[in-house]
Each structure stands twice: as structure tokens, then as C-alpha cells.
Amino acid sequence: MNLQQEQTEALRALIDRPRQHIVIVSHTNPDGDAIGSSLTWATILRRQGHVVTCIVPNKYPYFLDWMTGIDEVIIYRTDEEGRAARAIAEADQIHCLDFNTLSRLENLSETLASNTTAERVLIDHHLSPGPEFDLELSFPDSSSTCFIVYSLIEALWDTQAITKEMAELLYVGIMTDTGNFAYSFLTPELFRAVATLIERGIRIPEIHNSVYNSYTEGRARLFGYVIHRKMKTLEKGKAAYMSLLEDEMRRYRFQQGDSEGFVNYPLTIKKVKMSAMFLAHHKFIRVSLRSRADVDVNLFARKYFNGGGHKNAAGGKSFVSMEETIEHYIRSVREFAEEGHL
Ligand code: 5GP
Ligand code: MN
Fold first, then answer.
1. What dihedral angle (degrees, nearest 10) is formed by the CA atoms of 51, 156, 31, 86?
2. Residue 307 C-alpha to ligand 1 middle, in angstroms?
3. Which H or E run contains 243?
4. Which residues contact 189 (CB under 8 A, 6 or more apart)?
5. Residue 145 C-alpha to ligand 2 middle, in angstroms?
6. Does the 217-338 domain belong in CATH 3.40.50.10950?
7. Which of 132, 180, 291, 311 lies deepest, with the highest CB count within 10 Å?
8. pTM of the entire structure?
9. Which residues surround ligand 2, an ion (CB under 5 A)?
10. Euclidean distance between the first and the last CA atom of the chain, given in angstroms as a whole number
11. Local structure of residue 23 (DSSP, 8 states)
12. Residue 73 backbone phi and psi in degrees, to 5
């Protein structure tokens, strides 16, 4: 990623304003990168004397509960006291981290958009940012938003400003969004950043254990069930999909976050180039897509599931039944293959 001086100076000008009320907001179904980048950015902005509130639309998965400062993140969906709405109404600046358009905030988008005077800053690594931001720091070639936050801290202050707590938060986002250093954009700069985080005293095996080895027994059994009973392949084994209905999730005492990683698993099969997971929610079906190499699931998600994301990891939604969603997927994969994308 290449930070332009113009951009960092514009950001510096905003941060140099005295005592601003700043809301940091991240995406629906917040993940390690969303939480890690928000909490680190909040810490550094508070150090500059600003009043900072972190908000997410819904709850983060339980295996992130241990992250330092996570209790201060307001979950909009269950915020009965209206703390989030008040903070948004009073905000001088709204910093949007790890998502690219306000519509990704679902139930929170309208409340956020109702503050029309706050400066809106985007700090993100998804493709195709929306037009609704006053300052756009969009780096689709960064493997995570945490790495962007790291680079911004380096440019605006110095990496000396990074404490051990911040280093740990940043590492969570870098580790999870790179799939443990297995996906794209693994640059020398990224590994230099990780080296600096290690110098701050973080313990990588402990962080790894806290995030990846903290699931429930139900989740392990659900995983076995999904792979054994629900995974199907099509297009001569080049594409795969799995689905989960609400009663199946109940059977395994499903908790938010339990299906994390399932969609990646079919890609461990040599022939499979693209994988989909359909997860039933009360109002719609959440679609998760993963691919390898040149197969572009961002394109697929945009075209067939009204979604988006990254080239090899994208998502969307479906508002018809599971059966119809799967039929639509099968038809879409066929067309996608016929057009030479698979
Ligand atoms: P996940 O499958 O982990 O939920 O999402 C994978 C990627 O796709 C993430 O980068 C996420 O931001 C993006 N994504 C997931 N759902 C949607 C969606 O409904 N719309 C858009 N534009 N992107 C999505
Ligand atoms: Mn991210």
C-alpha cells in the first residue's frame, strides 16, 4: 500500500483540531480486523485529547471477548440506553473503519447518515469505496485495515507510539484477515510491521490460541456435520457450497461466530476453486464466498448476490428461501464458468 502525503496531511489536519468528538464505526458482523483496528485507532485518538466512541451494528464473536478494551465497544442493536445515537448526534468526526459503504452498516446506516455535518473519514481495504466520505483512505492492496492503521500511526506519529496493548490488537486483525499469513498482499512492509509488533512484546502463540482455539464443543461437532453432510460440489468439482438452516444451528447450540472459517474448508480440496456458505438468519440468508488465485468472488458477489468484498473473499445476501438461494447459486456458477471466470 502506498500512503499519499496529501492524504496523511489531510488526516493530520482533522486530528490536530482541538478536542473533537469522534465516533469510530465498523461493519456488521465485526471481525478481528474491525475490532482490532477500531480499538487501536480509538486509543491513539484519545491520546491526542479527543473524546472517542466505538460503535458496531451487532455483536462480535465470543472468541474476541478477551481483546483489551472490547467492553467499551457499543453494540448498536442492543444499545437500549441510546448511547450510540447520542454519540453519533454529537460527533464532529465519524471514522469508518474496515468497510466501504454506509449501507454495510445495516440498522446503523440511517442513524449515522442523520449526522450530516460531521466529517466522514474512511479507513479501509475493500474494493470500490462509496462516494459518501469527505476523506477517503482506501487501500484495497492492504491485507487488513489493521495494517493501514499501523501505517497511519507510523506516518503521523511514529511506531514508538504503539504500546504492547495496541500491538496485540493490531496483530489480531493482521493475523485473521491474512488467514494467518496465507492470503494475498503479504509484502515485506507487512512483515516489517509484524516485527515491530513483536518488539513491543506481543506473544503470537497466545494470540493465536485465544482466537483460533477457543471454540465450543458444539462448534467442532457442527463443523463435522457441515463438511460431512452438507458440502456439495458442482462444475466437475471446481465449485462447492454448504448451507445451514436455523434448526441445524440450534441443534449444535450455535453462537455468532461459530461458522467462522467453514467456508474456507472446501478450498483445501485441490480441485475446488470457489466455495460458498449459506447461513440462514431470521430475515435473510447470509452468503459467504471464498476463492483462490484468479477466481474473482468479489465480481461474483456483486453480480449475483448484491454484495462485494475482496477478490478472494466476498459476501452478500439472499432474500429468498434456502432452496431458491442454492438454485440461484448453481445457475450463477454455471454462467460464471461459461463466461470463463471459473
Ligand atoms: P464474510 O464471508 O467473512 O462475512 O465476508 C467476507 C468479505 O466480504 C468481507 O470483506 C466483507 O466485508 C465482505 N462482505 C460480506 N458480506 C457483504 C455484503 O453483504 N456486501 C458487501 N459489499 N460486502 C460483503
Ligand atoms: Mn478487514
1. 20
2. 7
3. strand 239-244
4. 1, 151
5. 5
6. no
7. 291
8. 0.96
9. 33, 98, 145, 177
10. 28
11. E
12. -75, 120
